[in-house]
Amino acid sequence: MSTHSGDVSNNDSSIRNIDSCSTVTELEDIDFSRLPRPRNLNIERQGSYDEKSLTETQLGFSPHPPSRAENFFRALEHFDCIFSPSKRSEFTTPRSPFGQGPHPMVAEAWDSLRRTLVHFRGQPVGTIAALDNSDEKLNYDQVFVRDFVPSALAFLMNREPEIVKNFLLKTLRLQSWEKKIDRFQLGEGVMPASFKVLHDPVRNTETLIADFGESAIGRVAPIDSGFWWIILLRAYTKSTGDTSLSELPECQKGMRLILSLCLSEGFDTFPTLLCADGCSMIDRRMGVYGYPIEIQALFFMALRCALLLLKHDAEGKEFVERIVKRLHALSYHMRNYFWLDLKQLNDIYRYKTEEYSHTAVNKFNVMPDSLPEWVFDFMPVSGGYFLGNVGPSNMDFRWFCLGNCIAILSSLATPEQATKIMELIESRWHELVGEMPLKVCYPAIEGHEWRIVTGCDPKNTRWSYHNGGSWPVLLWLLTAACIKTGRPQLARRAIEVAEQRLSKDGWPEYYDGKLGRFIGKQARKYQTWSIAGYLVAKMMLEDPSHLGMISLEEDKQLKPVLKRSASF
User: Fold this and answer.
1) For all residues of the chain together, what is the average pLDDT?
2) Hydrolase: is it a keyword of this entry (predicted)?
3) Label partner for 371 (CA 20 to 30 A): which of 251, 348, 423, 531?
4) 143-144 and 123-127: which strand pairing?
5) 3-state DSSP call for residue 374?
6) Which residues lie closer than 8 Å to 373 by C-beta, 6 or more apart?
7) How confident is the model at residue 483 (pLDDT cuts 50, 70, 90)?
């Protein structure tokens, strides 16, 4: 990767290194519009970061059976692996590659998405969480890092990268703020959960206000924000061919600060990240403390993206070496100990306990009696998935959508595992998709378990919100995973299910019930990421080459030899 470390200082003296002591006034005085113009790469001939073409690598791997994916990708050979910066998405034109005109919902979705734009000093910097007209807005009028990701992808796919660039730079500046909750100071690399723009009509000024967890439910810092920021920076670079943004000293420093937090040495004996409840999309108490799959998959993907973006200078080289070591350990741990299929389920069912030696098979001392009854019927013969959580004497057997889809997109899942995840979704379509895609987790917890795990949370009752609710935003992740594994027809089927109700219901945040039949009891209407998730799913189906900005091919060096009988 080429380096241009001198660009900022030579081209614009107003852009400077930001440290943790910078004041709000100093940060707001920076003129982001004077950043260097994007430096376009010749991506028509060679993909950035020396990645192989989409068709050559079949978007990361060749799923099993190979004929399904091979036939699909032969039909897509006219697509480039990288989104071409010279071509706007054609989804607003009368014709699509599948021979049908755009769905009427598309124009409505774009109109709604544009109405959520937030401006700071004349520049778009993000999208609010929801176009909510109720008096009780709570924090739905803020720009959330995780919520903005599908909006960012939609704008990138539609050849509107400036808002994404502005967002990345603004959140980067917010990262350098001093962050305190009560009398405790958070790590320098923590990214905000959200921010909002405050307008002062008297002084005619605008001010950014960030939330690093001090206002969140449970007062938990968002671990996923930093990972999403790195992933989005790579998506921007991949889709535009512009490396000048990621090569800014400020961006390089921002990545290193995030990595310093999660690569620091401690008392852990596992390469996974230890997390509190409520630190990610499931931002309320739901029994995901420990080593949740969502965070581990995002961690893995962010590490791989950072490996592509970091400069190989003195500071960057040290982090590159640490990343490579962690990726090897993390991929082995996740693929061995988090993976569940019919064979592994049977092995756990027959586990012996209280084993004490390095040759132990039941390494986490999991009690076979802790296996939930539902998992025996839920597990198909040919399917599999990554468990929700694995720790000492603990296995969370719930299926979590985001973690499993990110595992496919990041190639944390091996080709065989990715295929089994998709086979499970197809086999359990009624349970996981039902009447509105897609279950955030399955199954719901209820009764005494619900009281203990959630603390009697009235918002996370059974089959509602995070507790088995159906979230339309997950449609884009499912679509991306389907395309990568050569099953676009499965994504089209899910989109058609969503199109029956999503617009008519006012683009709700989530749906309730076993089948997702009811609009969520506290769901906000015109939820931005429900709108953006639909658009991203539609555009990826129209032009599967868009997948390149959010998907990583398999790294053969990380592929372990799986020997469960000897290692688990």
Assistant:
1) 84
2) yes
3) 423
4) unpaired
5) helix
6) none
7) very high
